[in-house]
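tool_call: predict_structure(chain=1)
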Amino acid sequence: MSNSKHPVGGAGRAAMSESSEGREKILRYPTYIGDATHKVPCIIFNAKKMDYDNLKTTGGVGNSHILNMKDSIALSMVPGLSFSDNIAYDQRETGMAGSIYNKVKEYSDGKPVTGKGIAQDAGEFGSDMVRGMSTSANSATYLAGVIKLATGSTALAAGGLGLQGALDEHAKQTGAVLNRNPFQMFSGVGIRSWSFQWNFLPSSAEESVSVRKIVKRFRMAMYPEQQPGSPTLQFPEVFDITFLNASFPYMPSVILKDCAISYNKNSSSFFNDAEGSPVQIAMDLTFQEMVPIYRHDIARGF
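tool_result:
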């Protein structure tokens, strides 16, 4: 994740263009972000309706026409942008079953054995269990008896000796415990997150108002819509994040999970306008992909 602050000061004026419907179509900060003259690396955010069948598109990546899309926001590049892959593994243990399987495979000269084969081989160890219990000298013989007990023999179980008790006695007599046989089991692919942080320092009240419009655009997109009288909520919008004049892996469509806004964090001043606009606005956004990526997605550039 990117955790560094990126100051955007009075070097440029926040700008916006109007759509034919009169709605603000593109919001930029500073004003030169995303234009054809200045090849400045920037990040483009495009809000769109949530569509689970269209989450991994790459058509607009790196192309200037993405700024003509509805509800675009163009912001300066943040430093230290990080892409962190997360693969999930669970620690498992085969325990006694693993030891039994390995021992029987060894007994069977390394030949693959089925569950039925294990039971048959273990049955041949039945009498060895008694000898191992009486001498406590041959741990292999004793373990052979445990194998028989674990694979279904009732010779000693019927006498009241439980499996755990047999293992505890074996550990006490030999000074050795059964190998727990731990291993890592692949369990799935994790969901990735990205954090972006900006520290806006508007040089005028007009720029401060523009930044607040950017903030409002993000906040509106992340919330669901509730129709009057309806018991349901419409899904929030998702974002396509693309990079202009910068080369990074593609990002799938993402949801905006957290939006933290801080006003005048290091100042108590306000612009002398009708609204009393703040002189500093910090914005921290955390996005999360909706579905994981896989090997073929990485081959495509994600």
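agent: The chain has two domains: 7-86+191-300, 90-185. Proceeding to next step.
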